[in-house]
Design goal:
Blueprint (H helix, E strand, L loop, with lengths): L2 E6 L5 H14 L4 E5 L4 H7 L5 H10 L1 E4 L13 H8 L4 E7 L14 E7 L9 E5 L2 E4 L5 H18 L3 E6 L7 H14 L5 E6 H10 L6 E4 L1 H14 L7 E5 L4 E5 L16 H13 L3 H17 L13 H12 L1
Parallel strand pairs: 1-2, 1-3, 3-12, 5-10, 8-9, 8-10
Antiparallel strand pairs: 4-5, 4-11, 6-7, 11-12
Helix pairs in contact: 1-9, 1-11, 5-6, 7-8, 9-10, 10-11
The structure holds 1,4-dihydronicotinamide adenine dinucleotide.
């Protein structure tokens, strides 16, 4: 059986890392029927919208996307493609596993980091509801709803159960934002009560940021509203080597889009040195979602093996290899 997947290569280094990930996925032996949907800054400007219809139509057909970075055109008021995708397909959960990569040589090499971040993906300050009350006085609405908070909490706890994880920490600032973060916390507590064998704790976001740096190995599942989730996700990525190293998944009821979280890196585009790790690890998450867990594990272990060997890594992590050499090494490590 083959799986239908929409591949959005994107622009900048997107096509390079997408091609590398596609080669690695195909090398697992899982049959994928790739439906390529081009999306880049020029196309967006031409179409006049962040999400031209051909991209949505393809995703509505396949329900699964693998997406490279897309440059957001400057000026013209275009929303980011990612925000548009999340809203359009109701991809309410942003999931980011953050794990130490053996052999990478980060300053946190002596601790084993293995956490999964669940960030609510559709509301909070990302609703874009801003208003100039009078000149030089602006408000921005933070929207928190019971439905979205319960959804993300249920998703995180369900994952914890399935993956045999032990504890969930909800991260908030309810001491200041008593109504909005207060509602988020009440929803988390309600869901936690339905999962009594998973340990549940709460941390105020500023303290959580400090604890993440001081003892990252103590975190397991993190559950956050949108804005804190955005910031904490990048902080956590920094613990394991940066944005080029971590995968991401945007999950909805029906649809899922997997993507590297870094941008289109125009400074190195076309040079053949982009690091495809994040895109490959996102592909491994995709394989897992497609119920191909063995292939997913094989791809992830192959990437880890290449880092452990230390010979075929790209310049952003101190190596000398290009994208193609890294990809060849991953494919060789799978066989
Ligand atoms: P960026 O992530 O593209 O680049 C930041 C730095 O990291 C650059 O020095 C770049 O060379 C390096 N870098 C990033 N990914 C790398 C990789 N895989 N291998 C090696 N080096 C890598 O962030 P920046 O410059 O802020 O954004 C550039 C463009 O990307 C913007 O137009 C932005 O809108 C877009 N963007 C798109 C995203 C998406 O589609 N998911 C996410 C973030 C930004």
């Amino acid at each position: 059986m083959s799986h239908k997947v929409t591949l959005i290569p994107g622009d900048g280094i997107g096509p390079e890392v997408a091609a590398a990930a596609r080669r690695a996925v195909d090398a697992t032996g899982v049959r994928i029927d790739w439906e390529v949907a081009e999306l880049n800054a020029d196309l967006i400007v031409k179409a006049g919208v962040s999400l031209p219809p051909h991209v949505i139509e393809s995703l509505e057909r396949t329900h699964v996307g693998l997406k490279g970075p897309v440059t957001t055109p400057v000026g013209g008021g275009y929303t980011s493609v990612n925000v548009a995708l999340r809203k359009r397909l109701d991809l309410f959960a942003n999931v980011r596993p953050v794990r130490s990569m053996p052999g990478l040589g980060t300053r946190f090499d002596d601790v084993k980091i293995d956490m999964v971040i669940f960030r609510e993906n559709t509301e909070d300050l990302y609703s874009g509801l801003e208003h100039e009350v009078v000149k030089d006085v602006v408000t921005s609405l933070k929207v928190i709803t019971r439905v979205a908070s319960i959804n993300i909490a249920e998703y995180a706890f369900a994952y914890a159960e399935k993956a045999g994880r032990k504890k969930v920490v909800a991260i908030h600032k309810a001491n200041i934002m008593k109504l909005s973060d207060g509602l988020f916390l009440r929803c988390c507590r309600e869901v936690a009560a339905r999962h009594p064998h998973i340990e549940y704790k709460e941390l105020i976001v500023d303290n959580a940021a400090m604890q993440l740096v001081v003892r990252p190995e103590t975190f397991d599942i993190l559950l956050l509203p949108n804005l804190y989730g955005d910031i904490v996700s990048d902080l956590a990525a920094g613990l394991v080597g940066g944005l080029g190293m971590v995968p991401g998944a945007n999950m909805g009821e029906k649809d899922a889009v997997f993507e590297a979280v870094h941008g289109s890196a125009p400074d190195i585009a076309g040079k053949g040195i982009a690091n495809p790790t994040a895109m490959m690890l996102s592909s491994a998450l995709m394989l897992f979602h497609l119920k191909e867990p063995e292939a997913a594990a094989r791809l992830q272990h192959a990437v880890e093996k290449v880092y452990a060997g230390g010979k075929h890594t790209t310049p952003d992590v101190g190596g000398k290899a290009g994208t193609a050499e890294f990809t060849d090494a991953v494919i060789a490590a799978m066989s």
